[in-house]
Amino acid sequence: MAKDLMHAVQYSKYGGGAAALKHVEVPIPTPKKDEVLLKLEAASINPIDWKIQNGMLRPFLPSKFPFIPGGDVAGEVVKVGPGVTNYKAGDKVVAVLASGGGLAEFVVAKESLTVARPPEVSAAEGASLPVAGLAAHQALTQCAGVKLDGSGQQVNILITAASGGVGQYAVQLAKLGNTHITATCGARNMDLVKSLGADEVLDYWTPDGVALKSPSGRKYDVVIHCTTGIPWSTFDSNLSANGKVVDTTPGLGSLMSVALKKLTFSKKQLVPLFMIPKKENLEYLVKLVKEGKLKPIIDSKHPLSKAEDAWAKSIDGHATGKIVVEP
Ligand SMILES: NC(=O)c1ccc[n+]([C@@H]2O[C@H](COP(=O)([O-])OP(=O)(O)OC[C@H]3O[C@@H](n4cnc5c(N)ncnc54)[C@H](OP(=O)(O)O)[C@@H]3O)[C@@H](O)[C@H]2O)c1
């Protein structure tokens, strides 16, 4: 490969799934004033990546075609823009990319969304953190008001799809707070989810799992809802009087429920989550991994040359933890 070219994965139009991903050689990007150039060590896939391919964020993302997807990366800094003060070549980092570019041998990231990766945190673990970890963190702390230092009154939490990318972090982070955790997942992942910190686990294919009934008869103060297809009525009957559902995948139905709750003055709430990445929160997650208090669960690792397999696996919707791509 020519010296200033790199291997990247891109798509050129909306739709088409994994089959539409093409392997190309493109110029290595140049970091702008406030950016760092990274040699990729690992990236992870999130459902938002293929939802963007399906046009969910049209017309904002992709900003243009062809588009290199991928927002979660870990890598080594090889060059910095003239305004960058906190990083130098050779530094190991984790970054979240606002407008893709992650599925490539080299990646540019904003300094403001890049954090140091200590040696105790592997590249795959680091790349598994940004979107899913930050979503779980924001849902618990900002939306639900759970204090992760263990202070505050005990909160009964339900976490749906606790075996997924977001759910696994939601369980582990919630456990740091003063919480009782009920979690849902498939039968094959019940032991794993318990080991992450859930106090009780429901198989989502059983009648009690469908009904979201707490085995110990608890009502939920907070639900961190990490999947789709559960009607408000099912939550309603399981919520405490001031219970709150934080919906990670707000659709038209949940936004209408929000409006209806306001009209009926119900104290139960449905809060849509729109994750806004913050550097200090990513630093906090990396620190927890370093200290052994948070363990990213990795479903599978795929070479960049087979990124389409990782993409298809995410679309399939049955990953246990995060799907990682490595150069
Ligand atoms: N709002 C935001 O800012 C934001 C940020 C990040 C993510 N999200 C969204 O959050 C959702 C979850 O993301 P993710 O990365 O966690 O997805 P994911 O990793 O693909 O989730 C897959 C997991 O969900 C489980 N699952 C599927 N349906 C379930 C159900 N009805 N009950 C219990 N478990 C179920 C699957 O278990 P089985 O294999 O056993 O079926 C699998 O382990 C996605 O829609 C994503 O787009 C939103």
UniProtKB/TrEMBL annotation:
<dbReference type="Pfam" id="PF13602">
    <property type="entry name" value="ADH_zinc_N_2"/>
</dbReference>
<dbReference type="InterPro" id="IPR013154">
    <property type="entry name" value="ADH-like_N"/>
</dbReference>
<protein>
    <submittedName>
        <fullName>Chloroplast envelope quinone oxidoreductase homolog</fullName>
    </submittedName>
</protein>
<dbReference type="Pfam" id="PF08240">
    <property type="entry name" value="ADH_N"/>
</dbReference>
<dbReference type="InterPro" id="IPR020843">
    <property type="entry name" value="ER"/>
</dbReference>
<dbReference type="InterPro" id="IPR011032">
    <property type="entry name" value="GroES-like_sf"/>
</dbReference>
<dbReference type="InterPro" id="IPR036291">
    <property type="entry name" value="NAD(P)-bd_dom_sf"/>
</dbReference>
<dbReference type="GO" id="GO:0016491">
    <property type="term" value="F:oxidoreductase activity"/>
</dbReference>
<feature type="domain" description="Enoyl reductase (ER)">
    <location>
        <begin position="16"/>
        <end position="325"/>
    </location>
</feature>
<dbReference type="InterPro" id="IPR052733">
    <property type="entry name" value="Chloroplast_QOR"/>
</dbReference>
